[in-house]
Backbone:
């Protein structure tokens, strides 16, 4: 396959940086990276630091061009010259940027996840009409189905009225809905839906402790003494290396056009396994698991109620009521040599052990 030019948002994020590294290692593609400058760091500086961590230089580094921008701004905050170049040269568009903080306020999540996707679609439409865009890859989430929805979510459908646990799920749902509308109008779309992305399957390593890790930290510090769940309830987590390698491989399949793929585990760990792991990796306080039907906020003291309110965005992930269809993904993986990840007790030990090693659970990091 001839080398292409890829336009990528979210390159400095947990998932985006790993995809960038894989593109540089496995292809000769040129990368146009949309990066938001920070007050302490220019867009160039942020990528330089990232590439330095990867040990990437020379020819690979020369295949990267960094464009200053911001997904939360109209036209992605691009200068006219950068906009024109992106339109003219982009073969594939990877929209990865997202706010994944489950506790984020609605306006924050809506600005980045929904409006940011709208602005990305504005550019993609122009790329297709006036340039040479062949594919638009959107990184959604398996939880567009709503983590509180008792259903089996299908890959190529959006549930009409999901039950959301947080603004992250709802804004990603609204964004994917817009992406699907553009697909019906002719935009060449493929949707990837990872579940809860955690550390590497071999080492447990992760660049950012987000999504499920803050929840784990509440356990570690004893702020949660009771939790409304059942020990057999499962939560769907997926190692980042699987998400990166699977999306990389599936994106290269012509059959993936117009389809969605659940990048999940088919055998998610249970709360029982999670609590067992907790006891093994650290001297953490015990947690009482209370049947949801018997749990009442009124039984908690004021401090516990305050802490429990911070847990609300995570509760759906321990409900065990939402499962995922993987027919498309299973079929696509047959051609890649990849398989669904094993997220057993040993894997839980790896991701928690890495967080312990990095001091994530220390009180001064709370």
Residues:
């Amino acid at each position: 396959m001839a080398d292409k030019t890829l336009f990528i948002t979210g390159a400095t994020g947990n998932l985006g940086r790993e995809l960038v590294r894989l593109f540089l290692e496995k292809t000769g593609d040129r990368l146009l990276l949309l990066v938001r400058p920070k007050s302490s760091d220019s867009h160039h500086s942020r990528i330089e630091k990232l590439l330095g961590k990867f040990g990437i230089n020379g020819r690979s580094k020369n295949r990267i061009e960094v464009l200053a921008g911001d997904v939360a701004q109209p036209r992605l905050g691009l200068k006219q010259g950068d906009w024109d170049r992106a339109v003219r040269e982009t073969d594939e568009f990877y929209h990865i940027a997202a706010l994944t903080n489950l506790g984020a306020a609605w306006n924050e999540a809506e600005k980045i996840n929904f409006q940011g996707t709208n602005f990305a679609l504005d550019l993609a439409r122009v790329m297709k009409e006036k340039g040479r865009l062949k594919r638009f890859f959107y990184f959604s989430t398996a939880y567009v189905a709503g983590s509180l929805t008792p259903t089996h979510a299908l890959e190529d459908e959006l549930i009409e009225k999901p039950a959301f646990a947080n603004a992250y799920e709802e804004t990603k749902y609204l964004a994917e809905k817009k992406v699907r509308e553009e697909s019906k109008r002719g935009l060449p779309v493929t949707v990837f839906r990872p579940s809860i992305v955690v550390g590497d399957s071999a080492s447990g390593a992760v660049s950012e402790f987000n999504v499920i890790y803050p929840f784990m930290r509440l356990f570690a510090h004893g702020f949660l003494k009771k939790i409304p769940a059942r020990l057999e309830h499962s939560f769907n987590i997926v190692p980042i290396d699987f998400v990166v390698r699977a999306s990389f491989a599936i994106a290269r399949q012509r059959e993936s056009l117009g389809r969605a793929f659940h990048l999940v585990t088919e055998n998610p760990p249970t709360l029982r396994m999670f609590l067992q792991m907790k006891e093994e990796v650290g001297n953490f306080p015990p947690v009482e698991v209370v049947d949801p039907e018997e749990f009442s906020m009124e039984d908690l003291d004021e401090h516990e109620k305050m802490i429990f309110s911070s847990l609300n965005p995570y509760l759906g992930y321990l409900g065990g009521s939402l499962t995922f269809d993987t027919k498309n993904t299973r079929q696509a993986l047959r051609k890649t040599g990849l398989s669904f990840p094993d997220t057993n007790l040993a894997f839980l030990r790896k991701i928690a052990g890495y967080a312990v090693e990095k001091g994530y659970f220390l009180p001064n990091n709370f």
Summary: The radius of gyration is 21 Å.
